[in-house]
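// run 5 | inverse folding | seed 20
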């Protein structure tokens, strides 16, 4: 448990740093930003909000067009809003590969909801926040639409600079908040929350006022803000974002959209929340790797990197780059490694058709190099490895490990250090 928690933290840190890292900039590795914390679909987040007394629209969820049509009729609303469920924002302005424009549709005629859902379900929706090929829609939300007289932005997030949660709000909501921050920073309001004290009444009211809620709407918004904070704490969120937090002409403050991110380290006490994660939008290789307690990150090149530790992973990728190669991926073994994990790791790495060589770079601190060596030889034999394999091992029990590799009779190129290993891996492809 402790080891897996530590390695999760390492991967998170790695992804944060690598996203700014020159190597990854060069390879434009968008996949690095894929999945850092548990994400839920809007409808799942709204269920959690309802349980905390946060105001959301009445809704149903549908996986087929006929279910969507049924739901639209059952709502008996004067207007319906149909929303594609994907783990990305900007749906309103998105585009389906069915030709349908917009992942959020309003209609007064419930009988067209089936046809609309037909152009959403099974099709990919591309938005500013998705990969360019889009994300396939498997579920839609059918909700009672409400008139919106004003859209604001509200979020609570864990903020390193504040050493705790902070509320962020803007009276300019519904739109891209990054753009508001860039063009009119004076319209972004921040309010750090004391983790022991919680959101104070005066803070909630000040934020409600800054968001532009007036009269009775101000105290209603303040109440919603406090409930959102209760939810933030209750579910171990790292972020609760509502864009838009809107007001209706009838005088209601409503959360029209919802995005909640969760702290993966809280999984042990948030079983119900984590059980909602269907992983269907995660990279299948990452998901498979996670099953074996391995961390896999896909890149664009052709040299697979098999390493332990985030620092070593980055150094390995850098040195490959330095010698004119490109990493295809890296797989982080973590600490208390078993022979079978090494085998599974090789299986994952070799399943990628881009991989033309494998570079193993392990520093045996906690890890016993002999276990790695045994795992490698077993994998080479059973998987009938077809690509060149370069191995650099150092640290605990390395002499025994080298003996195992050399006596195996397998075509393994051993390397004396990191530089040598990278050179040999790059050269093995050039041959
Ligand atoms: P996003 O584009 O992925 O962020 O999806 P949203 O849930 O935020 O919806 C996009 C936009 O659709 C919102 O900013 C609203 O302007 C509009 N919208 C969503 N639900 C309703 C609704 O019930 N009534 C009205 N009038 N507009 C809505
Ligand atoms: Mn939104």
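// decoded
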């Amino acid at each position: 448990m402790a080891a897996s928690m530590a390695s999760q933290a390492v991967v998170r840190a790695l992804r944060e740093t690598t996203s700014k890292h020159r190597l990854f900039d060069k390879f434009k590795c968008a996949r690095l930003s894929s999945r850092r914390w548990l994400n839920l679909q809007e409808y799942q987040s709204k269920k959690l909000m309802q349980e905390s007394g946060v105001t959301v629209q009445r809704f149903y969820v549908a996986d087929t067009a006929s279910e969507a049509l049924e739901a639209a009729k059952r709502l008996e609303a004067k207007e319906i809003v149909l929303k594609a469920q994907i783990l990305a924002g900007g749906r309103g302005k998105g585009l389906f590969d069915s030709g349908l424009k917009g992942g959020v549709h309003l209609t007064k005629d419930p009988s067209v909801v089936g046809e609309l859902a037909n152009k959403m379900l099974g099709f990919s929706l591309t938005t500013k926040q998705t990969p360019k090929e889009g994300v396939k829609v498997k579920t839609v939300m059918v909700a009672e639409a409400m008139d919106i007289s004003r859209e604001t932005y509200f979020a609570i997030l864990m903020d390193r600079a504040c050493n705790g949660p902070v509320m962020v709000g803007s009276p300019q909501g519904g739109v891209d908040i990054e753009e508001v921050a860039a063009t009119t920073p004076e319209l972004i309001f921040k309010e750090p929350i004391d983790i022991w004290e919680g959101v104070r009444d005066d803070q909630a009211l000040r934020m409600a006022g800054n968001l532009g809620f007036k009269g009775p709407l101000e105290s209603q918004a303040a109440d919603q803000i406090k409930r959102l904070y209760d939810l933030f704490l209750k579910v171990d969120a790292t972020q609760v974002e509502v864009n838009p937090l809107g007001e209706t002409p009838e005088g209601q403050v409503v959360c029209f959209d919802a995005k909640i991110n969760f702290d993966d380290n809280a999984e042990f006490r948030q079983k119900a929340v984590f059980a909602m994660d269907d992983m269907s939008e995660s990279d299948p290789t990452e998901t498979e790797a996670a099953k074996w307690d391995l961390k896999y990150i896909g890149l664009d090149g052709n040299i697979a990197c098999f390493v332990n530790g985030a620092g070593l992973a980055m150094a390995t990728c850098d040195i490959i780059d330095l010698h004119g190669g490109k990493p295809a991926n890296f797989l982080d073994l973590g600490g208390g490694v078993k022979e079978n994990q090494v085998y599974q790791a090789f299986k994952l790495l070799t399943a990628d058709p881009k991989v033309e060589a494998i570079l193993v770079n392990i520093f045996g601190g906690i890890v016993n190099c002999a276990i790695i060596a045994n795992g490698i030889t077993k994998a080479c034999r059973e998987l009938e490895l077809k690509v060149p394999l370069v191995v650099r091992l150092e640290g605990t029990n390395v002499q025994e490990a080298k003996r195992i590799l050399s006596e195996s009779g397998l075509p393994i190129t051993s390397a004396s250090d990191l530089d040598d290993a990278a050179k040999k891996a790059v050269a093995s492809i050039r041959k």
